[in-house]
Amino acid sequence: MKITFKTQADGTKTVDALPGQSLMEVALANDINDVVAECGGGAICGTCHVHIGENWLDAVGPPDDFEEDVLDSVPNVAPSSRLACQVLLTAEFDGLEVEVPN
To answer: How many domains does the chain have?
Structure first.
């Protein structure tokens, strides 16, 4: 499947991903520079914060309460905000578009 990341550092970059991977794992494996992921996927630091593309919000779904609490502490939070470590990919996410805020 293909996932497209839009970042300030890298511009637009479309990469391959596998079902079962998290968005964070895909970003790190493909050198998406603006996804830092300091906690390694523990959903406690917020450094893998991304904005899900508008057309994908329903498919990806909203954050749970714990993730929402972490998102409350990150800059540039929006209704489309998710932690990339908490978005597990399924085959239906082929073509997913994600923006990485500064």
So the answer is: 1
